[in-house]
TrEMBL record:
The protein's name in its UniProt record: CBR-FKB-5 protein
Signal peptide range in chain numbering: 1-20
Keywords for this protein: Signal
Organism encoding this protein: Ditylenchus destructor
Domain of life: Eukaryota
Amino acid sequence: MGRSGSVLIFLVSIFVFAAAEEDNNTFQGQKLSWKDDDGLEIKIIRPIAAEKCKLKSQAGDVLEQYYKLTDADGKEVGSNFGGTP
């Protein structure tokens, strides 16, 4: 699936490091949302506290994550929720 400036990605990741919300856009020093140079917006919607992560990713690991894609109007255009990442 191609990337588009009008597509908003909501990510829920099993490997997100987070513990206490510091402000509206960070959680334990980790940014929760950002916008790429091409206009793609990314938002982590369910961060996980670092102390709850029993398995930490390492450089070179292959990671899987859940995602939900919506267009600029908020209409869902893709998701793997209810399936496997």
